[in-house]
């Protein structure tokens, strides 16, 4: 049985003080254990420390994630963040391959694969994003497109436990647009992702890897996605920026 995961991607929102405030709101809304739901928040890198401090001082079980990482250990890579720097701030998850990083910053599947390997070497769980554009979807090529992304992003990865890796299926046309994929759309691609993960890692591991849906997920529609067999949770952008709406999604999953 896979635990559900609800992960919040705060993107480039919240100053240091605002991030601390949002984290305080979340620990008030979600005290103690969240049972069968793993909750992760991914603030901007500059805010990780503020959020880590709030989480540490609470009894909450919310985990901390980053939104990006560089694959080198250290050195002359101005502006980048190494995996051990994330570890030192308490991050245990990191989003990679988000469509905004692929689209605006030119990240390739090869980069994403290097990031996944670097994170795994530091025991940080990648939340690896994939998803097609509207053009690809309208051409009916979305399943094969996403399957190719998964194959490239996982090339040469070795996992010893399913909890070491998370996939987020985020159709680009549904991100931040208010247009949601239907639960059936999500299931179609998430089940193809799981079949691909089975080919790559074997059934035992792949059956335990969480595959999330992302794209305008909110309290009103989360239950429909979670009811699908291969959708194990959500990566949430806009609706993760308010403690009450994010907590409502977690509670809907509990
Ligand atoms: C995201 O960017 O990961 C995302 C899913 O955003 P939104 O929920 O705002 O569509």
TrEMBL record:
Record's Pfam families? Answer: TIM
> Is Cytoplasm found in the keyword set?
yes
Q: What is its EC number?
A: 5.3.1.1
Stretches that traverse the bilayer: none
UniProt-listed CDD domains: TIM (cd00311)
Q: What is its main location?
A: cytoplasm
Query: What does the record give as the active site?
Result: 98 (electrophile), 170 (proton acceptor)
Q: PANTHER family, from UniProt?
A: TRIOSEPHOSPHATE ISOMERASE (PTHR21139:SF42)
What is the protein named? Triosephosphate isomerase
Please state the gene responsible for encoding this protein: tpiA
């Amino acid at each position: 049985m896979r635990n559900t995961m609800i992960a919040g991607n705060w993107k480039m929102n919240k100053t240091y003080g605002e991030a601390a405030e949002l984290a305080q709101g979340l620990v008030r809304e979600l005290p103690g254990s969240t049972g069968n739901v793993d909750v992760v928040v991914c603030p901007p890198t500059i805010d990780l420390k503020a959020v880590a401090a709030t989480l540490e001082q609470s009894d909450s079980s919310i985990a901390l994630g980053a939104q990006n990482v560089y694959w080198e250990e250290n050195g002359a890579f101005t502006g980048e963040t190494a995996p051990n720097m994330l570890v030192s701030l308490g991050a245990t998850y990191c989003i990679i391959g988000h469509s905004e990083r692929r689209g605006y910053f030119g990240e390739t599947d090869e980069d994403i694969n290097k990031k996944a390997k670097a994170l795994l070497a530091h025991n940080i769980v990648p939340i690896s994003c994939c998803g097609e554009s509207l053009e690809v979807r309208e051409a009916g090529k979305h399943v094969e497109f996403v399957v190719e992304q998964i194959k490239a992003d996982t090339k040469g990865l070795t996992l010893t436990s399913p909890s070491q890796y998370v996939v987020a299926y985020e159709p680009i046309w549904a991100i931040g647009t208010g247009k949601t994929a239907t639960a059936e759309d999500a299931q179609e691609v998430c089940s193809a992702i799981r079949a691909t993960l089975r080919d790559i890692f074997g059934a035992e591991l792949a059956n335990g890897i969480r595959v999330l849906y992302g794209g305008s997920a909110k309290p009103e529609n989360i239950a429909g996605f979670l009811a699908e067999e291969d959708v194990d949770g959500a990566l949430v952008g806009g609706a993760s920026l308010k403690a009450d709406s994010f907590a409502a999604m977690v509670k809907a999953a509990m």
